[in-house]
Amino acid sequence: MIRLLNKTDQSKLLEYLYQEPSYNIFQIGDIETFGFKENFLRIYGEFDDKKNIISTFLRYRQSGIYYAKQNVFNHDYLEVFRKDPFNVISGKDSLMDLIEPHLNNFKKHSTFFCYANQIEDKIKMISHPIHVLKTKEDCEKLYYFMSTINEFKHHIGRKDDYVEGKLKSIQMGTTLFIEVNNQIVSTVATTAETKMNAMVVSVATAPYYRHKGLATSLLQKLMDVYINKKNKSLCLFYDNPNAGKIYLSLGFKTIGKWSMYFYQKDHDES
């Protein structure tokens, strides 16, 4: 049986998801932060005949995440997908392989999934001061910086929306940045922070300042904050081999692959 979950299911749901806290970081982070009180967050659960949860499907704004401890997919979820559509769906590579045949007009993007619970101390920190994002002014500076980075500028959206979202995200993670002449030149952030871990996102450096150790220094500082001070692990995705070398040198270990499917609007649609 598959049904929409509610607040009474929260304890059982988190117990199920915490069996693999790294893979379920987004679901756990959303549930611990928002619970079941926001209309942009919905969680569906599949139960066996003993009323145990055996799979979940989380809907957050325009995105969906599917998870099951076992490598299974109940086709009854296809009706959920039809009634509660999404623009992006993601999950463990092995699970998404089961769903892919049912995803029409979606384009696949696979990444490596990494995890770190200790930090290598062999890399020398740079001398630039590292700042923590706290204010609206910081968010506006970050918007202008990210709008210049090819990997992010096409997805950044409107300034007001970005700034508002970034301010709200402070409760779900930490954003660090380095400035030169009062302009941000490198940044790294976490999101989906839970009681046990957080997801590293938005690693970016201005082209002129690349290969100077800025992003590495920011990552090392972030790892110190989470692993040494908060006693939490960090997760991240990567598909760039050069970036992967940096992450692995800092103490991250590849534990699997994560697949994302993005809806491609049909050319015939208006």
Q: Care to describe what's here?
A:
By secondary structure, the protein is of the alpha+beta class. The chain folds into 2 domains: 2-103, Aminopeptidase (3-Layer(aba) Sandwich), CATH 3.40.630; 131-260, Aminopeptidase (3-Layer(aba) Sandwich). The chain is 31% helix and 30% strand. The chain contains 9 helices and 12 strands. It has helices at residues 10-17, 25-34, 77-83, 93-99, 136-146, 150-153, 159-169, 214-229, 241-250, and strands spanning 2-4, 41-47, 53-60, 63-67, 88-92, 106-116, 131-132, 175-180, 183-191, 197-205, 233-238, 253-263. The chain has a 12-stranded mixed β-sheet with strand order 1-2-3-4-5-12-6-11-10-9-8-7, sandwiched between helices. A hairpin with a 5-residue loop joins strand 9 (183-191) and strand 10. Helix 5 packs across helix 7. The longest helix is centred in the C-terminal third of the chain and has 16 residues, at 214-229. The protein starts with a strand and ends in a 7-residue tail after the last strand. The model has no long low-confidence stretch (mean pLDDT 93).
